Amino acid sequence: MRFLFVLVLFAGVAIGVLYPWAVSNFSGHEIGTWRVYEQGRFRPVTVPLAARDAPLRVLVDLTARAERIVSQQRTVLTLTAATGGRTALASTLQFNHSDNPRQASPQLPDKIFRDEAGVIQTVSPGPYLFTVGPGDAEGIPIRAVDLVLRAEAGAIDERARPVGYAVMGAGLIGLVLSLAFGRGGRPQNPNSQPPPPRWGRGGSSN
Length: 206
Prior knowledge:
By secondary structure, the protein is an alpha+beta fold. The protein has helices at about 1-25, 160-185; strands at about 30-40, 40, 45-50, 55-65, 75-85, 85-95, 100-105, 110-120, 125-135, 140-150. The chain has two helices and ten strands. It has a six-stranded antiparallel beta sheet with strand order 2-1-10-4-8-7, with no helix packed on it. Strand 7 (about 100-105) and strand 8 form a beta hairpin.
């Protein structure tokens, strides 16, 4: 039973954690990366897009001299994407869930944290203006910010995370219960006890 509950726990992790992460980071193909913040300055970038790029996933990589981002639910960065005088995407980024940042360089202590700004489902052919700016979070040691665009990105099933977390919980509870009952309910093996002493010389009563 323990092995079964371990499998259930791993299945929950795959559904609730690995699947959304893989879709966000690897579905579709990357169009390119643009530096939007460096040396204390933000700058907008214009990217020509085609209708075939949809759905377009917009990601932001933040390079900071920190082990994790602690924004206390405040906004670290804001992002807007506009084309033809209309806003196609507006998002706030907090980076609170970026628990496994990438190392920027073996020689530097900087880490790269990624967050998703959103998905543009329908792309109108033409130039898109992407504007990234600061939020209201304080004390974030930002070194650089990069805009990453992935074309033809897959959509994450919104049911995946809650279902995955429920399966993880069931597997974890079952594993804990099986360990608890298995430790206390195992019958004692009578052959494990030493044999009773025999009386008399040479072990014989005669």
